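Argininosuccinate synthase: structure tokens wanted.
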Amino acid sequence: MPKRVVLAYSGGLDTSVAVRWMIEELGVEVVCLAVDVGQASDDWDVVRERARAAGAVEAIVVDARQEFAEDFVAPALKANAMYEGRYPLVSALSRPVIVKHLVETARYHGADAVAHGCTGKGNDQVRFEVSTRALAPDLEVIAPVRGWGMTREESILYAYDHGIPIQATKEKVYSIDDNLWGRAIECGEMEDPWAVPPPGVWLLTEQTESEPRDLVIGFEQGVPTSVDGERLGMLEVIERLNTVVGSYGWGRIDMVENRRVGIKSRETYECPAALALIMAHKDLESICLERDLDREKSRTEPRYAELIYDGLWFSPLKQAFDAFIDSSQEFVTGEVRLRLSPGSAAITGRRSEHSLYDYGLATYDAADSFRHEDSAGFVRLWGLGIETWAARQGTDRIRD
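Answer:
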């Protein structure tokens, strides 16, 4: 039985109750670790006080926003990582950086176990536990919420009975998880996939701008480095785009996705910066990547996204993909122009010093440098196999 546990602490109902529950039921000391990855609503002083009121021997907050942006979001952006082609992995991307600090804190404080507040239905239990085993296979992983059998109402009563300050009420509310890469909103009436998301759930994408404008995003080796000519760090680019792009009411996702545990789940997200950056980056690649490299990378991207979604950030296949993707980004440097208008973001231009677009080859005007006489032999050889098949085997089938 472990003696000291480091809990990934959010300050919400489940993790606050988990502190006291583990102390009383398991007889352990609990260190609470909250990781700041850009949550919009958290007051970290309140989070610390709540952890201590629940009985934690230590309450720690780590500011990991820049690390999250540069070491976790940037690689995913270079891979254009979108789970099931739509979701830019808002929650999934934050879990490995949280686990990294969870393990580091466990080592520093001499803990022999870590804990999380995930339920048995969600994806996050997989992400927390698999990542922990990849980084520290000797640490025990405890999942109190998955095993204690309390309903939401019972958890609230437990908190009241033990003097744990919480904000939760018995009424069913939305479940919101947010960080600098976006917001995930679920539960409530949205558990019906036919129900329209109520307007009150949106925060990042409330339309306040009505006049169209252009926005130019600069990239260096696949990483965004400027907005409208102003040089910014990765974190600052994301923050700027969340504000600017979101103000046009663009960046919402409403989908039914396949969870790792086999459940289909209706999810809504708002990710203005993430969607704008992925769209711009992919477009810049269209002029900077050679055709076969571009196509092979496109085949890799869905699998890369699945690895992140499935909790396999720290895995040999993910490392191998990173090496390939980093190599592909050597010449992905340039600028992309977006046109923003209410409810819309569209690419209207791209340029790069490494562009493979050759005007002389592409144009049909007098500057045309393409050798048209070469095409006759090329086309004949390209179609030779089909011509042979049609003559020997395919003529009757084509007529039928």
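The two ends are 74 Å apart (CA to CA). The longest helix spans residues 90-108.

Cheers.
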